[in-house]
Amino acid sequence: MDFTDDAFVLSARAHGDTGVVVELLTEGHGRRAAYVAGGASRKMKPFLQPGARVVADYRARTSEHLGSARLEPVGEGPSALFDDPLALTGLAAAASVAQGALPEREPHPGAFLAFEALMSAFALPEVWPAIFVRFEAGLLEDLGFGLDLSRCAVTGTMDDLIWVSPRTGRAVSREAGRPYADKLLNLPAFMLGAQAGLGEGDVGSGLTLTGHFLEQFVFHPQNRPIPSARVWMIDKLGEAGRL
Hints:
Structural class: alpha+beta
Family: Belongs to the RecO family.
Largest sheet: 5 strands, mixed, barrel
Oligomer: single chain
Number of strands: 8
Pfam family, one: RecO_N
InterPro entries: ARFGAP/RecO, DNA_rep/recomb_RecO_N, NA-bd_OB-fold, RecO, RecO_C
Helix content: 25-40%
Number of helices: 6
Keywords: DNA damage, DNA recombination, DNA repair
Protein name: DNA repair protein RecO
């Protein structure tokens, strides 16, 4: 199986003396593992960091075998974030979540586009934490577990939606949910539309919301925890007063 595709590097690990195995998120062919000859060299290492944009020339005997790839870097990649440790923690978290959530060899172009949008947002310190929440919501939708935030699950109204059912992922209005407020998840306004601004605690509520459903529908069925890089990112955002 051969193809050439745009991709982001999600991770790289040493394999043998000079090679590495990379995990790629490709635009048209999903998440792919590939051996990169010479990937351990000083010349190649900068292009194999999580978040690096590449064009991958992929080759494999069959779809089930570990393929090999030649990678051509595109742009400056994550090096632009080296002076922003908080953004780097977000990048590591995004790569870990994508790698853990997406099944291998299954096309998910929506996930690629969401990751691409998030990579662009990391240059905007005040914006990217909210875009991270949208990225995770997009992953859930692309995997078939999208949140239904269009109307209240109880009354059908489209107004005053402030909670989400932790069981169904459907929005609940203030009035309908008031008796069950302690059992519902907060729904930050920015997840309902681009026009809404960010309020205090909105990013934290959004991460709690997407994290709940990632754990329930994606990681728990795999008997795996939420990636530690995501937990680390949330800790650092809290320390920085960004939740």
